[in-house]
Amino acid sequence: MRQVDGGSVKMDGKEFIMDLLSYPIGQFAAVQEPTDEQRTQFIEAIAEITDKFRQAMDGLGLEQLKTPYRPGGWTVQQVVHHLADAGMNSYIRFKRGLTEDRPIAGTFREDLWAELNDYMDTPVETSIMLLEALHTRLATLLVGLKSLDFKRSVISPTHGEMTLDVALQRYSWHARHHIAQVTSLRERLGWKK
């Protein structure tokens, strides 16, 4: 891989736009007034994340796990561990949003967390199992909520005030976004399952 200009990169003779490498499913865009049916789809998407992540990771060896999904980006292994950390933070955000009045949602220095030794030394399956258990709890929590509960809000230091409706959509997008980073890397480099 080599940088061609500020907005693209060349890999194996092909030029790729950096935004497409970073955001293969596009940037996040919230549905402002989701229906109950749409909300159910977002929750179901969360419940499917671990299966989709396992499929994306299927057959990858250690060298592939240590490969960045884009120039200057995290390795595949760091992406997996990041998603587990983001999932834990999201779960706590929902619980606080449901039990406190407009709480300031915790955030974390994901760039620095990705450099800690647990990201380097922990097998990816550990984080996938953590996500599986976490998503079981999160889906159970979310399915039991009423429409009005999703109107409650949290204040994010990075995204400002957002309803739990938007937080749900953002979390669902976030996971699909990272899975797509791994699957698009596999496609670009021709990694077979």
From TrEMBL:
Domain DinB-like: 49-182
Keyword Protease: no
Protein name: YfiT family bacillithiol transferase
Keyword terms: Transferase
High-level lineage: Bacteria, Bacillati, Bacillota, Bacilli, Bacillales
GO molecular function, one term: transferase activity
SUPFAM superfamilies per UniProt: DinB/YfiT-like putative metalloenzymes
Pfam families recorded: DinB_2
Protein's UniProt keywords contain Nucleotidyltransferase: no
NCBIfam families in the record: PRK13291.1 (NF009807)
Matching InterPro entries: DinB-like (IPR024775), DinB/YfiT-like (IPR034660)
